[in-house]
From TrEMBL:
Its EC number is 6.3.2.1. It holds the Pfam family Pantoate_ligase. The active site is at residue 32. One of its GO terms (molecular function) is ligase activity. This is Pantothenate synthetase. It catalyses: (R)-pantoate + beta-alanine + ATP = (R)-pantothenate + AMP + diphosphate + H(+).
Amino acid sequence: MRLTQTKAELRAATAVRPRAVVMTMGALHEGHAALLAEARERVGPEGSVVLTIFVNPLQFGPTEDFDRYPRTLASDLAIAKNEGVDLVFNPSRDELYPNEPSITVHPGPLADELEGMVRPGHFGGVLTVVSKLLHLTQPDLALFGEKDYQQLTLIREMVCDLDWNVDIVPVPTVREPDGLAMSSRNRYLDETERDEALVLYRALTAGAKAGMNGPDAVLAAAHSELEAVPSVKIDYLALRAPDLGPVIGPGEARMLIAARVGQTRLIDNISITLR
């Protein structure tokens, strides 16, 4: 496994095809390991798996946790090596943004909904860094977790609209045994908050079980679970079509939730079949 920290080193090291990239902000956990394992499986022993680790300042708001976001490079590299990663790109801020960017990616109207209502400008920062990393790594495949479902949807739209020659591969959310979606921010939770956070998954699964009774029943079932833990503050609970447009009739849908547990903000989502 090779560690690169400059764009020049990266360009010199990315000659192997096929190539898959997994983009992260570090603080890797089993969810990231699942992405890397899927990438290794898809490109095979002759291909190359590239992991990027970069805490992207453009996607953090002024009151968010950029400065305290966990940086755990040594353990990240150990996980990467264990999952068969060939190349790690871990640039500094100055390497990736030598100048304050004046041209960024405009993410479109979906970016102002759901997460975008609570975190204005967030997805512009996400799509800008994803665009740069796609350009720098030149992959055949880019793998993203379904836990960040709105991000995944917007990346798919960007790749389609801008004709990027890359396949975007979704990977299902990896959960703890009790259902909590794995997240680098879970380490912020104390023992009590960790127990309270489980209400997010309980609400989503209750909504999924009510799918046979229609959208109103789905939302009612989810809200009923959330009301039992008033200390968890909900930013939004939404039921959308798979492309995050409005739900129209029976079929597949996606329920998304964001909430604050103590000082920690968590997101999750689940696929729901409406009848």
